[in-house]
């Protein structure tokens, strides 16, 4: 049963990647399909970071404008389609938080629990894939400070300055931990 589930998830990922390639070529039907398959997940990401339903909806709209304009930047050889889309949503939401001068929400907003999503979560899709296993392995090879700083910056949306303030350490130290950690991750993932 697990093998069949893996095959289905791989097929879904390949189908989404092919659909994004069609969006790159200006296919509106493909764009509608990408939206239908991913909007609930991306909205959840935006809502978690922004903690405001209206702002999350605005950012989600901006994300899909970016998808339409930048689909040519998606490379199926570098990342899974959901990873690429989730990164767009996360980065756009963090940009909005920084523009407003507020910190990202640390806990799920109550509204995020009400977002309907009949499919597997983005995290479940990532965990099912080989990419997730390799990333988890490579994160495990990092020093504790590097791993913690990378997780807080990239998964929780904290800026380097916010991390330095939270940990009570110099900004340069945080930057150094993350930079060295990302270099080590890159080397590990390329093996």
TrEMBL record:
PANTHER family: RNA POLYMERASE ECF-TYPE SIGMA FACTO (PTHR43133), RNA POLYMERASE SIGMA FACTOR SIGZ (PTHR43133:SF62). Residues 37-102 form the RNA polymerase sigma-70 region domain. It holds the Pfam family Sigma70_r2. It comes from the Bacteria. This is Sigma-70 family RNA polymerase sigma factor. Belongs to the sigma-70 factor family. ECF subfamily. GO terms for biological process: DNA-templated transcription initiation. One of its GO terms (molecular function) is DNA binding. InterPro entries: RNA_pol_sigma-70-like (IPR039425), RNA_pol_sigma-70_dom (IPR014284), RNA_pol_sigma70_r2 (IPR007627), RNA_pol_sigma70_r4_t2 (IPR013249), RNA_pol_sigma_r2 (IPR013325), RNA_pol_sigma_r3/r4-like (IPR013324), WH-like_DNA-bd_sf (IPR036388). The keyword Transcription applies. Keywords: Sigma factor, Transcription, Transcription regulation. Transmembrane segments: none annotated. Residues 133-182 form the RNA polymerase sigma factor 70 region 4 type domain.
